[in-house]
UniProtKB/TrEMBL annotation:
The lineage of its organism: Bacteria, Pseudomonadati, Pseudomonadota, Betaproteobacteria, Burkholderiales. This is EamA-like transporter family protein. Residues 16-144, 166-297 form the EamA domain. It comes from the Bacteria. Signal peptide: none annotated. Keywords: Membrane, Transmembrane, Transmembrane helix. It comes from Hydrogenophaga pseudoflava. Pfam families: EamA. The chain crosses the membrane at residues 44-64, 100-118, 130-151, 163-183, 195-213, 225-247, 259-275, 281-299. InterPro entries: AA-Vitamin_Transporters, EamA_dom, EmrE-like. Gene3D superfamilies: 1.10.3730.20. Its main location: membrane. It is a multi-pass membrane protein. GO terms for cellular component: membrane. It is found in: Membrane.
Length: 302
């Protein structure tokens, strides 16, 4: 992982980060549109990851980045690729079952999982800032998910019967992503981020291809709106990654800036406008708590 910059953000850098967050949020809204019109999760992941891998590999080749990697880094890439495959499939599975913003908010617990994995596998000390933030993050998530079922009016049992599977997929995505971050930080030191991303996306695409084959073939859209969704998720995700690796370095910004954690807020607004998804005011408050806490954690590390 790249070392974060201590410089303040320029206006161009801030606007670019917000654009990436917007496109990533829009990617998930487009994915839900595709899922609602017959596209399977594995088909969506295959289109998205395959296109992104191709674009990033072209960037790598045009930049003349060396591809000779030590055996240890090759093994690490396989592990990271497998984990990101799980994360991609689980997160899209959550988006298919939950309001898009809630799926992303549950996924945004990944800093807790990252700290847990780092403590368990690498014996790293948990930062005091994370311990202080943990109850606020969990409170915000509890409000956003309406754990008691009060906002939905269904009661806890019926509410969790409706959202339980989606929340489980989102948390599984967060756990696998957190573990991937730990392996990235400790086992790919010195590896060019473009090579890492291209290899990871290629592995994810292969995993999705296996999923597509296991389901008997493509699950393509059954209506024009589904085709727009499939095209949107592919173009938005690939474009966001391309900007991340071509524009941000020139602006002196690393890709993992905390500013991009506003993605669920953009997703909330877009899902309301495009899909008609609505959440209660108390859930919006919970979402703001989650996003603000994750951004504070990221800024504290700077």
């Amino acid at each position: 992982m790249s070392s974060p910059s201590h410089k303040s953000l320029s206006g161009s850098a801030f606007a670019t980060l917000l654009l990436i967050a917007f496109m990533m949020g829009a990617n998930h809204v487009a994915a839900r549109l595709a899922f609602d019109h017959g596209v399977s999760v594995s088909t969506a992941v295959l289109f998205r990851s395959g296109a992104t891998a191709l674009v990033v590999w072209l960037i790598v080749r045009m930049a003349g980045v060396p591809l000779n990697l030590p055996a240890g880094q090759k093994r690490a890439l396989l592990k990271i690729g497998a984990l990101i495959s799980v994360q991609s499939l689980c997160l899209y599975s959550a988006v298919a079952r939950l309001p898009v913003a809630l799926a992303l908010l549950a996924f945004n617990t990944y800093p807790l999982w990252t700290a847990l994995w780092a403590r368990t596998l690498k014996a790293e000390r948990v930062e005091p800032a994370l311990l202080r933030a943990m109850p606020v993050l969990l409170l915000g998530l509890a409000l956003a998910l309406d754990v008691a079922g009060a906002a939905s009016g269904l009661g806890a049992s019926a509410h969790w019967g409706r959202i339980g599977a989606g929340v489980a997929f989102a948390l599984a995505a967060a756990a696998s992503f957190g573990l991937a971050l730990v392996f990235t930080q400790h086992e790919t030191v010195g590896l060019d981020g473009r090579v890492r991303t291209a290899a990871t996306m290629a592995i994810v695409a292969l995993a999705a291809l296996v999923g597509v084959a296991g389901q008997g073939g493509w699950s393509l859209p059954q209506a024009p709106a589904g085709w727009w969704g499939l095209l949107g998720l592919t173009v938005l995700y690939g474009t966001a990654f391309t900007i991340m690796f071509t524009v941000l370095p020139r602006l002196g910004v690393v890709g993992g800036s905390p500013i991009m954690n506003v993605e669920p807020i953009f997703a909330l607004l877009l899902a309301w406008a495009v899909l008609g998804q609505q959440v209660a005011p108390v859930q919006v408050l919970g979402g703001v708590l989650v996003v603000a806490t994750v951004m504070w954690l990221g800024l504290r590390r700077r």
